[in-house]
Write a structure and sequence with these properties.
six-stranded mixed sheet; conserved putative lor/sdh protein from methanococcus maripaludis s2 fold; Elongation Factor Tu (Ef-tu), domain 3; about 400 residues; six-stranded antiparallel barrel; about 35% strand
Length: about 400
């Protein structure tokens, strides 16, 4: 019995010791978990508290200062080139066309031979005219000698006065026949010279209208055309409304035009490059076109290298006019609203103001402002998307 009691007591002590150790570590774990939960809860509670939003910095804007000044302006139009002298080459005599001498489409010089006609018939006509002249000159000499014999006899009444009159008439008739024969010789020389057809001007040649060997007469006398390239004309048109608007601007003092309308003309080629030679206005049509209602203006430009060709489209820019006291602002500073166009003005307190404006023409990358701005005011150019009336801004010049 003593043994059994000792064993029971030992077994009970061993079981209790394991259970106590387990319970101890469990309580430690629970305390650790509770501490973690407590820290997380405090963090959540702190994060849930509302923080006041940070004050945003004032928007940054770049500005330009309004500075009225006399500004040169230009006007640009679409023009079409035209030869200043377009010469049709015709055959002046009838005959067979021997050959074409020039190269079609090439630049020909003044006096350069273009065509050669058969000259033999005209050389024969010249010989005939010269022979007829010699005959008439011989008849004139006979009439002169006869008159010289009759004159002294008539003074002494040896012959009747009638014979003197006849001798005088024969002499004068023979002299007139000689002059007529001389004219026929000159005509024959001219006709012979017309068989060699040369260019009267320097210009660009077109294709030959008649083939070699063709019999040329007044019905098919056109042989080719020569277009003078320098100077070359450029024609452009101004509408009636545009012209009236310019006149109104001049009367109101908004536009100052050059004296006597002597604009400097620049030519802009199709690739946007500037033609090296400048021109002047040389002609203005006295009346409007009934078909288009436009006013035709012609300019003349030197074209020594033949860069410009007839019927080519180019842009014409007229320089020389001035807008006195004009106000210019960059195009990106002008915005479109429901009530029209406006700009943002930065006042003396560095606050934004919405200012309605009236815009005029473009000048490069700028707008002309006709109403709404005054000298010295600051206009916001960049950074205007976040602006509101009365908001403070940070100004960047």
């Amino acid at each position: 019995m003593g043994s059994y009691g000792s064993y029971a007591s030992y077994a009970s002590y061993g079981s209790y010791g394991s259970y106590g150790r387990w319970n101890f570590w469990w309580s430690v774990l629970m305390k650790f978990v509770f501490a973690i939960w407590l820290v997380v809860g405090i963090g959540v509670v702190c994060s849930c508290r509302k923080q006041p939003p940070p004050v945003p910095p004032p928007p940054k804007v770049s500005v330009v200062v309004v500075n009225p000044k006399d500004t040169p302006v230009s006007f640009e139009y679409v023009g079409q080139t035209q030869s200043s002298q377009n010469v049709n080459i015709h055959a002046r005599v009838s005959g067979f066309l021997d050959r074409r001498v020039y190269t079609e489409g090439a630049l020909v010089q003044t006096g350069q031979v273009l065509f050669q006609m058969d000259a033999k018939p005209f050389a024969v006509q010249l010989d005939q005219a010269q022979a007829a002249l010699l005959k008439q000159q011989a008849a004139l000499e006979v009439a002169r000698l006869n008159l010289a014999r009759v004159k002294p006899l008539a003074k002494t009444d040896v012959v009747a006065k009638r014979e003197l009159d006849d001798a005088t008439g024969q002499y004068e008739s023979a002299a007139a026949a000689v002059e007529q024969a001389k004219a026929q010789v000159e005509t024959a020389k001219l006709n012979l010279s017309y068989t060699t057809i040369a260019s009267p001007v320097t210009g660009m040649s077109s294709s030959a209208k008649q083939a070699d060997g063709t019999y040329v007469n007044p019905q098919n006398s056109l042989l080719t055309t020569i277009a003078v390239l320098s100077p070359i004309w450029i024609n452009f048109s101004i509408s009636e409304n545009e012209l009236q608007r310019y006149r109104t601007w001049v009367e109101q003092g908004v536009l100052r035009v050059p004296r006597d309308g002597s604009y400097e003309v620049e030519v802009i080629l199709v690739d946007g490059s500037l033609f090296p030679h400048k021109g002047r206005i040389t002609f203005a049509e006295p009346s409007y076109s009934t078909q288009t209602g436009t006013f035709l203006i012609r300019t003349s430009v030197e074209n020594p290298k033949g860069t410009l060709r007839p019927n080519q489209f180019v842009h014409v820019r007229l320089n020389g006019a001035v807008r006195p006291g004009a106000i210019l602002v960059p195009q990106r500073a002008v915005q479109q609203g429901s009530r029209g166009q406006f700009v943002w003005v930065v006042n003396k307190e560095d606050k934004a103001e919405l200012r309605p404006v009236t815009v005029g023409e473009w000048q490069g990358e700028n707008w002309f402002i006709t109403e709404g701005l005054h000298a010295g005011e600051r206009v916001a150019v960049d950074g205007t998307l976040d602006l509101q009336p009365g908001i403070a801004v940070s100004v960047k010049q």
